[in-house]
Structure to design on (127 residues):
């Protein structure tokens, strides 16, 4: 029971991380220092998708599920939890590459806008 709850917790954290990777650049508009966390997260997320790798959080979840006596699954977090929502017929390698490129392009566009239009502080300095 405990291992199953821990595995579910990993799924929640993993899902929040994926959202942060995809949409975190938008939060950087408001909180510029957040870029220190978001840039490495976005690079990691794009790398995992483009390389065809599997995030360590997926391995942790599967290990906890096995300890709980539950069956694991094949593939990664995105294929198991998100693909059924987005791609009902399954994720191909080409689709995975497209997702990685989409994440990279979205974040590059956001950071390009941040660099092009720096925010002015109240005292007139540019941040």
């Amino acid at each position: 029971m405990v291992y199953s709850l821990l595995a579910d917790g990993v799924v929640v954290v993993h899902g929040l991380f994926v959202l942060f990777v995809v949409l975190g650049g938008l939060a950087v508009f408001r909180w510029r220092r957040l870029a220190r966390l978001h840039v490495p997260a976005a690079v990691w997320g794009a790398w995992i998708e483009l390389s065809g790798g599997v995030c360590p959080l997926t391995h942790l979840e599967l290990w906890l599920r096995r300890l709980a006596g539950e069956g694991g699954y094949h593939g990664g977090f995105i294929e198991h939890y998100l693909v059924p929502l987005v791609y009902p017929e399954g994720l191909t390698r080409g689709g995975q590459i497209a997702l990685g490129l989409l994440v990279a392009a979205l974040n590059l566009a956001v950071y390009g806008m941040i660099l092009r239009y720096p925010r002015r502080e109240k005292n007139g300095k540019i941040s």
About this structure: The chain is about 70% helix and 0% strand.
